[in-house]
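=== RUN LOG ===
request id: a7f3
mode: sequence -> structure
chains: 1
length: 341
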Amino acid sequence: MTKYDTLVLIGRFQPVHNAHAEIIRRASQLAKQIIVIVGSAKQPRTYKNPWTGHERRLMLQNVCDSIKADCAIRIEENTDTIYNNPAWAVRVQAIVAKYTKSTDNIAIIGHKKDSTTAEYLNMFPQWGYEEVELIQPLNATNIRDLYFRRNANMNFLASVIPSSVRQWLEGWQVSPDYEQIIREREFVEMYKKQYSSLPYAPVFVTTDAVVICSGHVLMIRRRSEPGKGMWAMPGGFLNAATDRSVQDAMIRELREETGIKVPGPVLIGSINKVQVFDAIDRSARGRTITHAFRIDLPNGELPKVKGMDDAEKAQWVPIAELDSAVCFEDHYEIIQTMLGA
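=== RESULT ===
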């Protein structure tokens, strides 16, 4: 007799390692089925989230096949919404509901290794909780740290990742995405060295412009690291010496990066919403708090724009065609929040 009808395992699996495999193996002995939910899906490739949801599903499927479990194992993806935890939880509930009945005995399996993990594990009081002790001290962050280095030695990872995952990672080292993430990591490390001697880590203030016109949003393609080639809102850092306000900084950055052919008073008069976005890890560069301004321009012909300064290109993008997988940092979520989506 099994203890549960269903055990739910939630994680980012960046990448899948031996502890994940062991949890799945134990879950297979306790439940009739396992639902594995892969988080941070549809995100841009970054050092923190280097592999797509599809790629991590393949890693997990290979690991599950090697376990040869008797129970059914379902693997699903879930996107992140760092500014709307209830929406994230609802999607988890919907995934589980696809494979279960209201009378089923359901539990989440995992280990509360930190406050973030504990927070999401506590979001489902309607289910039980199956605690798993710390299986190995080396976690996914440590593995990425060893992997995303020039001349990385895969032998260091042989004892902490399944053989199928190791083979996959070795093959992925020849991809241009691997090289891009190494460049991003090197940039961030050099960037942080600028303030490493300070007694306290600095807090950066930035602005972003969510400019809407005729069902389009104004986006720029980033010219440099971090996020080179990704799409972002026009914006940048507050200039403490010259910007009288964050609104002034937003207008300045908007003009510098897009050259938008709209008079300043019209831009200011079209501001309909201002909101602060301050998720603690929203930027790899350090604690960065941004002030987003929604600017609703009159419908009609789209104003002319041109990529300048930090922007390789400026372009009006139909809102329905925005793709979170190519948007910088949390910019896609900011736009959705500012639009009330």
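=== NOTES ===
The mean pLDDT is 94.
The first strand starts at residue 4 and ends at 11.
=== END ===
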